[in-house]
Amino acid sequence: MTSVRKPLLGGNWKMHKVRAEAEEFCKALAAGISSAGGADVDVVLFPSSPLLHGVARSLEETAVEVGGQDVHPAAQGAHTGDTSVAQLVDAGCTWTLCGHSERRADHGETDEQVGAKAKAAVEGGLVPLICIGESQEERESGRTFEVLERQLNAALAPRPERFALAYEPVWAIGTGLTATPEMAQEAHAFLRELLADLLGPEVAAVKRILYGGSAKPENVGALSAQPDIDGFLVGGASLDPEKFLAMIEGCSSRA
Ligand code: PEP
């Protein structure tokens, strides 16, 4: 299926890999990306902070981009353990995740903080990949759409000029459980309608909405075939270059 939205594939390495492992991954990715159809897919890696500069250097001859896993909304200051937009840009990043569910759970990030991070990211020259999604309890109690609407409204309240969205049902992240293509499509279509209400139909039509939650080479085809799924944010399967290349190939067939 052809789409006006070029597929986007993000690899979230979370707190995995040291420099030598990252280097090995980048070599394998650079060697295989053309034959995997990489020209038809935008690819971004999200390594942890100490790896960012090295990964960006290793991939500078390729079109693969690099992003932070989180960013602080302040320009600088007394925020121990945090990373600023300028520091990410300086390390070679063009993207940052905002509001990943593990940040929300481990660090108590609120919807409003996610919005402030996305705004700061855009102002400093990064594209935020804003992550939203319901918990198992929220889905089971029929509140999925209400939660998605609340999270999206808050994240977009400061009206970041550029962004992509990742719909990541929390119950599917790192669990091996995947939303069925129909479930994911239903949520993506709902999000696109919300985007149309908030930002207008022209903007909604070009915004990429990724699916995240145990995506892997085996399920990328069926999910990609859904009209509102524009790529993936991948955790576990992004750690292995062969699997990640297979996912690039799976996304490229949608382009
Ligand atoms: C993620 O970290 O955003 C993610 C979707 O992880 P996994 O693919 O391992 O479920």
Can you put this structure into words, describing what you see?
- There is one protein chain.
- This protein is of the alpha/beta class and 255 residues long.
- The chain is 43% helix and 14% strand.
- An eight-stranded parallel barrel has the order 1-2-3-4-5-6-7-8, surrounded by six helices.
- Helix 1 runs parallel beside helix 11 and helix 5 runs parallel beside helix 7.
- It is globular, with a radius of gyration of 17 Å.
- The N and C termini lie close together (7 Å).
- The relative contact order is 0.17.
- The model has no long low-confidence stretch (mean pLDDT 96).
- Bound molecules: phosphoenolpyruvate.
Please describe the topology of this protein.
Layout: E1 8-12, H1 19-32, E2 42-46, H2 52-58, E3 65-68, H3 85-90, E4 95-98, H4 101-107, H5 111-123, E5 127-132, H6 136-140, H7 144-156, E6 164-167, H8 181-199, H9 201-206, E7 209-212, H10 217-224, E8 231-234, H11 241-252
Parallel strand pairs: 1-2, 1-8, 2-3, 3-4, 4-5, 5-6, 6-7, 7-8
Helix pairs in contact: 1-11, 5-7, 7-8, 10-11
The structure holds phosphoenolpyruvate (PEP).
Question: Topology as H/E string?
Answer: EHEHEHEHHEHHEHHEHEH
Weakly predicted, low-confidence segments: none
Radius of gyration: 17 Å
* Range of strand content: 5-15%
How much helix, percentage-wise, in residues? Answer: 40-55%
Termini Cα gap:
7 Å
Side by side, the strands of the main sheet go 1-2-3-4-5-6-7-8
Overall strand count: 8
Please outline the major beta sheet.
8 strands, parallel, barrel
Number of helices: 11
**Shape assignment:** globular
Structural class: alpha/beta
Mean pLDDT: 96
Ligand list = phosphoenolpyruvate
